[in-house]
Amino acid sequence: MIFLIEEGSKWVITQRNKYLPQAVPLSSQEKEKLHKWFDPAVINAAKIVQVPVIEKPLFYDRAQTMELYNLPDLTQMDSLVFGEVIAVSQKYKPSPDSTAWHGLLFKSLVRVTLFRLLKARKLIDFYVNEWMKNGFNFDMISLEVVAEELQRRFEGYPDIVFSVEEELKEYIKDLYRNQ
Questions:
Q1: pTM for the model
Q2: Closest Cα partner for 79 from 57, 101, 96, 104?
Q3: CA geometry: angle at 61 spanning 59 and 64, to 5°?
Q4: Number of structural domains the chain divides into
Q5: CA 89, CA 13: separation in Å to the nearest integer?
Q6: Is residue 79 helix, strand or coil?
Q7: How far apart are the first and last CA of the chain?
Q8: Torsion over CA of 73, 94, 33 and 77, rounded to 10 degrees?
Q9: Which residues contact 20 (CB under 8 A, 6 or more apart)?
Q10: CA 102: distance to chain centroid?
Q11: Quick one: DSSP state of residue 55?
């Protein structure tokens, strides 16, 4: 487990540094569409980069020699967040003005907010621990469940504005209180 946390943290930082030079800020239209739900620091820091596919981390091969199978297939993901950098796979990118694109951006900004609140190491630690605790099922990681729920609220009730950061802070506080 320590191996996954250490290697995962290094990989996230490496990917962030790799993609940051090509990443572009959110467009003015994207900022306008999403600013009500996010702290301005998140909206202004977030950057998007198109990638052919989300890469499989190099440490995955070593993890499998340690009998860690069921690692999430990142190559099938539509996007992945590395700090403030949102890498979007070209094979999944929807039209920029579509509901699907705004939903993808919203959920990605939830993750940018999580990186901001917890920092990379603590967030990776949380994800790895929950992934293992939940039978190696990525979709059962509670912060992923919360991100999905917030995205559903955003898409289903676009006139009801809420602070993503405050929702996440409250959830994280409850999570640590109940451990």
A1: 0.94
A2: 104
A3: 110
A4: 1
A5: 18
A6: strand
A7: 19
A8: 0
A9: 47, 49, 85
A10: 15
A11: P
